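The methods section describes the discrete structure representation at length, but only in general terms. An entry of this sort, consisting of the sequence and the corresponding backbone structure tokens, reads as follows:
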Amino acid sequence: MPMRKAFLLIAAAGLLVDARVFAQSQDITTYRLTGTRIALGQDIRIERDEEVTDGAVVVAGNLEVAGRVRDGVVVVGGNLHLASTADVRGDVVLVGGTLTRDAGAQLTGGINYVSFGDWSRRNVGGLPSIRFGEAGRWLYLAGTLARVSVLGVLMVGMLLVARAPVARVGRAALAEPLRAFVIGFVAEIFFMPFLIAASIGLAITIIGIPFVAILVPIAIVIAIVAFVLGFTALACRIGEWVEDRLGWQPGNAFIATAIGFFVLLGPTLAARFVDVAAVSAWPLTYALIAIGLTVEFIAWTIGLGAAITTGLGRWYTVPPPIVAPAPPTATQPA
């Protein structure tokens, strides 16, 4: 009997050791190797069986690490989540987001944590809080500011080189805005089909093929000039109207155009700033965006129609304004 018990104990111990070895072998992960993981504007996940041989970089997105990263992690404008099976061998740089680290996650290196999360929200004088963590909203604002800046430069150049055409187009736009809108809308619809049809018609002939390379750039340049000329003229006239209603002395064309510029683009700019600064203000943001897009579309279309009807400002379609004669000056008797 003692011998049998000894054999049973030895067998049980052997089975226990085999079970532990089998369990350990089950925990061993065979990694599939990938290179550097880079993402812009989207979320990525490094799976448990994935090993990134270099680094992982995510801009304007979130990163979840469940596998292994050999050379550090950089996340800008998003959040970083290290799962319990994560193994990051390098520094972590986190800008504009939060770090979530589960129990068991391994991190060899420092954490450079530059985040503007909840602690960065400030209410000053009842103003909306500022959110720095959502990079996408800042990108929209940057894009809008870039577009507005380029348009402003083009408008200044138009005033410098074509002051008289701007005045003629502006008078035509305000004299018959509905007619100008219809003409501009029709031009917007049929410009591309007409350009494509003309290009095909020239391309089917051997002689006309070289003219296609000339027609398309010239047509696009003329369209851009017509749009900018019309928008500048309408902004100038609106600015002059605002000055007149406010009782201001008539300024120069640049001041009037600047006033009209901000009147036409104000809702769009306000929408982007509110979208960045305000908390839970999406109804106001969407309303301002809708108003801004509508105002811009109407302004661009009316300006284009007025530019077409005046031949890019080369001739009048409405009588010029009547200038009141100066009162006669009293003459001293001889």
Notes: Residues 32-118 form one domain. The first strand starts at residue 32 and ends at 34. The radius of gyration is 34 Å. Residues 21-27, 116-133 have pLDDT under 50 and may be disordered.
